[in-house]
Amino acid sequence: GTPDSDLMFIGEGPGYQEDHQGKVFVGRAGQLLNRILETMLDRDRSRVYITNIVKCHPMKDPSNPEKRGNDRPPTDEEVLKCSPILTEQIRIIKPLVICALGGPSARYFLKTDRGINSLRGKVYEINPVPQEPEYSVKLVPTYHPAYLLRNPSAKKLTWEDIKIVMKIIGLKTG
Ligand code: URA
User: Fold this and answer.
1) What SS3 class is residue 21?
2) Which of 16, 52, 144 to mutate to test the pocket of ligand 1 (most atoms within 8 A of CB)?
3) Which residues approach ligand 1 with their CB closer than 6 A?
4) Residue 32 CB neighbour total at 10 angstroms
5) First-to-final CA distance of the chain
6) CA-to-CA distance for 110 and 14, rounded, in angstroms?
7) 145-172 pLDDT per residue, tens
8) pLDDT by residue (tens digit) across 56-114?
9) What angle do CA 91, 96, 98 make, to 5 degrees?
10) Candidate of 12, 68, 79, 105 to mutate for ligand 1, largest count of ligand atoms within 8 Å of Cβ
11) Closest protein CA for atom 7 of ligand 1
């Protein structure tokens, strides 16, 4: 994405495909995220920046990066270690809205251990850059696209969350 994006999507961390291609959200979950973006933005990606809370591929078995099905969510320690990079990305981009994809991302911003089911569906005002306490951003948590692949019935609620995001950045929801 471009540094003047007003919307950031923040996922968990790279998976196998992302690790091998050096790009975010290029695997199956990424293809679903693309479809969401196409519906949302009518192909105009200039307003969107996509990244992850952790920058390395969290693996169940790090000795075998070629193994499939080796992905796992990042640990709290990994999230904390990578957080200065994410904070710097947010400091530079200064989006109006952050859409947190999935529990680990939502919990990182909200400093909670609650699950995504109870966090989504609302807008939170947060201060994500400790060095700039006067900067606040609207956080909209929703389900991770990988979760939607396993639980397609959650797509309806995700679309409700996406409509909240669209309203904040001034897009018509139809
Ligand atoms: N899942 C994520 O959280 N991020 C990616 O980049 C790909 C899959």
Assistant:
1) helix
2) 52
3) 11-15, 18, 24-25, 27, 29-30, 52, 146
4) 19
5) 25
6) 22
7) 999 999 999 999 999 999 999 999 998 8
8) 999 999 999 899 889 999 998 999 999 999 999 999 999 999 999 999 999 999 999 99
9) 80
10) 12
11) 25
Distance 74 CA to ligand 1 centre (A): 11
CA separation for the pair 111, 93 (Å, rounded): 22
Report which ligand 1 atom has the smallest distance to the Cα of 101: 3
Residue 104 near residue 79, CB atoms below 8 Å: yes
CB 10 within 8 A of CB 141: no
On whether the pTM is more than 0.90, the answer is yes
